[in-house]
């Protein structure tokens, strides 16, 4: 029995655990108070859902907690304490282990003192469950005498600089760009996170930012109109005034009218994620104490996967596909400036090639638009598009050019006779925050689809990737590694297939696979009839015309912007 002697008495263990139980009950009581009486939702969540829905869900979760979750926990605790099933309490071990570091940091978990304290903490978990049930039920009971805090170590608060939280943003941004984790447009987009925080929160130091402040910031972001920085009606207003004005407009709108669109959850999560990264960077680089909690963590919901993710964007249905590729761009337009009007002129510019390339290969919009002539490479006689520096490192790949595009003269119009450093599509003039060529295409593609009645929400250029993925998955016996290589998705199978073949043999398989992808529309009238392996007749003149028109339109647009700014 002397081997089992403890230096900690049972009353001392119970006293320490009682302090923990009281702290948990106090925290839950504070949460009930701050949320307005909701046990499972904070105030921001309740405001978003509305009182009726919040109360209904809160009551449902209370019932589940009282009738299912807590009884099972207590049953497992009882089985573990009795010795009938020592493993029953394993799911609670992380809680026991982490709290033991607080209640008795010098005590070994495997020692007699540690085992005594762990058993007492299991009883404490049962007490926490009971007290939570009583608090949720609104039980009226005398206020108990609080246990002494002699055994609860006081943790000194880390010293936090008094400078505004955003003081180091420029250094953070420069660091992300220099180590290659951010591209220029990513850094530019992140500036909006900084501006939103600055205007909605202010120049608070990090010590003044807690989880409640972050929750309130997200509530304001969810209330912000989607076009807060573009719509004329919001110009000159502070963001807080924009939110108030949008709310007032919604309250006065007719019942059958749509409310003003607000920022999507994806956008709010993007801004929150930038602030999570910034806080972490400040800790890593000595701007904030490392043991200071990051209040921005825990708010972002995991991205949907599997079936849920399929609903983020939709495939192009066959009828829409036919509407698009039988429209004037591919059957004949009235003139270059009247591309939606039916005529006899076909212009093989970026607007002609890029959608075809997207539908036949599943390549991303920017992967196509940003390429140079030198990105077309020949691998064992197979013409491929070399894609590098795309969305992720796994996106790097060599994509065989489908036979359908070769029959249309893609190489003759875009490759032969041109310098390797030339942009593949020079008529797409870089623009937008990231100075991307795809920005010059995407706006036109949206407006064109609207003009030919071929526009449906969530069906866009990226949806072509879904069509190609579906085509590949429906090919009998297709190696999944080849499909991943075509779409640029990382997988173990893809890596093994790359190592199994020489590049030329793999390209032959991928070329044969892509040639089986079909748009489902007869495009035989677009077959190029000229000689192969040399520039198409008039291709250089056409390209010069496309570029000149694009530059003229860009200059005209810039002039209109300057005139508008002068009037403002």
Structural write-up:
By secondary structure, the protein is mainly alpha-helical. It contains 23 helices and 5 strands. The strands form 2 sheets. The chain has a 3-stranded antiparallel beta sheet with strand order 3-4-5, with helices on one face. A two-stranded antiparallel sheet has the order 1-2. A hairpin with a 2-residue loop joins strand 3 and strand 4. Helix 2 (43-49) runs parallel beside helix 8 (211-223) and helix 14 (350-361) packs parallel to helix 19 (463-473). The longest helix has 32 residues, at 51-82. The chain starts with 9 loop residues before the first helix and ends with a helix.
What's the structural blueprint in terms of helices and strands?
Blueprint: H1 10-35, H2 43-49, H3 51-82, H4 93-103, H5 112-137, H6 169-178, H7 184-200, H8 211-223, H9 239-252, H10 265-284, H11 307-310, H12 318-325, H13 328-331, E1 333-335, E2 338-342, H14 350-361, H15 365-369, E3 376-379, E4 382-387, E5 397-400, H16 403-407, H17 410-414, H18 438-451, H19 463-473, H20 480-487, H21 492-500, H22 503-514, H23 539-567
Helix pairs in contact: 1-5, 2-3, 2-8, 3-5, 6-7, 7-10, 14-19, 20-21, 20-22
Q: How is the biggest beta sheet arranged?
A: 3 strands, antiparallel
Strand content: under 5%
- Could you say which structural class the secondary elements and strand pairing correspond to? mainly alpha
The string of secondary-structure elements, in order, is: HHHHHHHHHHHHHEEHHEEEHHHHHHHH
Output the strand order for the largest sheet: 3-4-5
Broad shape: elongated
- Residue-averaged pLDDT, rounded? 84
Number of contiguous helices: 23
End-to-end Cα distance, whole Å, is 88 Å
Unreliable residue runs = 1-5, 305-311
| Residues in helices, as a percent range | 40-55%
Tell me the total number of β-strands: 5
Determine Rg (CA atoms, Å).
31 Å
């Amino acid at each position: 029995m002397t081997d089992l002697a403890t230096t900690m008495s049972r009353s001392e263990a119970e006293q320490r655990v009682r302090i923990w139980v009281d702290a948990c009950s106090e925290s839950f009581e504070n949460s009930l108070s701050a949320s307005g009486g909701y046990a499972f939702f904070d105030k921001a969540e309740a405001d978003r859902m509305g009182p009726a829905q919040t109360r209904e869900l809160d009551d449902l979760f209370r019932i589940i907690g009282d009738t299912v979750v807590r009884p099972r926990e207590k049953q497992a605790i009882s089985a573990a304490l009795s010795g009938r099933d020592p493993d029953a309490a394993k799911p609670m071990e992380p809680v026991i282990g982490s709290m033991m570091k607080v209640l008795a940091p010098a005590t070994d978990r495997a020692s007699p003192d540690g085992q005594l304290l762990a058993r007492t903490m299991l009883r404490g978990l049962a007490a926490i469950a009971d007290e939570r049930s009583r608090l949720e039920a609104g039980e009226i009971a005398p206020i108990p005498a609080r246990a002494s805090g002699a055994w609860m170590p006081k943790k000194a608060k880390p010293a936090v600089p008094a400078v505004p939280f955003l003081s180091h943003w420029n250094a953070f941004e420069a660091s992300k760009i220099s180590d290659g984790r951010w591209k220029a447009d990513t850094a530019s987009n992140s500036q909006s996170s900084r501006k939103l925080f600055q205007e909605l929160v202010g120049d608070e130091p990090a010590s003044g930012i807690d989880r409640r402040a972050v929750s309130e910031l997200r509530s304001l972001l969810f209330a912000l109109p989607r076009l807060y920085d573009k719509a004329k009606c919001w110009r000159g207003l502070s963001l807080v005034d924009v939110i108030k004005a949008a709310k007032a407009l919604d309250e006065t709108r007719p019942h059958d009218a749509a409310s003003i669109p607000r920022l999507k959850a994806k956008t709010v999560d993007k801004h929150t994620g930038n602030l999570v990264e910034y806080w972490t960077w400040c800790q890593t680089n000595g701007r904030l104490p490392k043991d200071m909690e990051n209040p921005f963590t825990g708010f972002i919901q995991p991205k949907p996967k599997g079936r849920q993710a399929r609903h983020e964007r939709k495939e192009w249905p066959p009828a829409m596909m036919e509407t698009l590729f039988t429209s004037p761009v591919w059957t004949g337009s009235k003139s270059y400036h009247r591309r939606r009007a039916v005529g006899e002129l076909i212009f093989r510019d970026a607007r002609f090639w890029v959608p075809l390339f997207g539908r036949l290969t599943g390549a991303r919009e920017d992967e196509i638009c940003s390429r140079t002539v030198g990105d077309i490479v020949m691998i064992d006689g197979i013409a491929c598009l070399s894609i590098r520096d795309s969305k992720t490192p796994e996106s790097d790949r060599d994509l065989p050019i489908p036979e359908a595009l070769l029959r249309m003269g893609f190489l003759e119009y875009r490759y032969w006779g041109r310098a390797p450093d030339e942009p593949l599509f020079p008529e797409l003039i870089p623009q937008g925050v990231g100075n991307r060529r795809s920005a010059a295409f995407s706006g036109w593609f949206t407006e064109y689809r609207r003009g030919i009645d071929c526009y449906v929400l969530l069906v866009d250029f990226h949806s072509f990737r879904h069509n190609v993925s579906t085509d590949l998955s429906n090919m009998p016996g297709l190696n999944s590694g080849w499909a991943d290589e075509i779409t640029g998705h990382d997988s173990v199978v893809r890596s093994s297939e790359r190592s199994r073949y020489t590049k030329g043999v793999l390209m032959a398989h991928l070329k044969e696979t892509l040639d089986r992808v079909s748009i489902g529309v007869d495009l035989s009238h677009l077959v190029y009839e000229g000689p192969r392996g040399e520039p198409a007749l008039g291709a250089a003149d056409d390209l010069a015309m496309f570029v000149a028109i694009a530059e003229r339109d860009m200059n005209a647009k810039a002039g209109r912007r300057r005139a508008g700014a002068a009037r403002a």
